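Example 3.2
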Amino acid sequence: MARDGWSTLFSAAFKQSKNPMALVDVERRHVDVNAAYQRLLGRSRRELLGRPIYEHVADGPLFSDAEWDAALAAGHFHGTAELVCADGRRIGVQFAAETEIATGRRLVLYVALSTARWGGSFRRSIEIDRQRAAARNDEIERIDTRRVVAVR
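Structure, written as tokens:
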């Protein structure tokens, strides 16, 4: 398929997808959004384009500048986020992102793989993950403390 055929195919898939999708630039600003993404956030295309994606993430950006740079360099990443809708509701989202050079610049395609519109159980699963991570960190600190004591 000719290169312009791929862009036509991608454009059609992007626009018609029932999965919320957003294209963002390296500064994390919305470059394009599909209708499903607009419905998810309850915001118009005009409200979103040019604005940072993290403005709609509960508690701000998921990545520090260094983490963002590393994610861009890796070329793809995934995760979970809690998005804030226009009406103040929070929606949990599992997403995947892919970085590509398109139209002469580096862009990131975000695709919402699943959403938890009810919010509560998704937030509980995030909290359980945080608790597990905290428990692992506590265990690592205990092990490190034992090593320090054993070395002395």
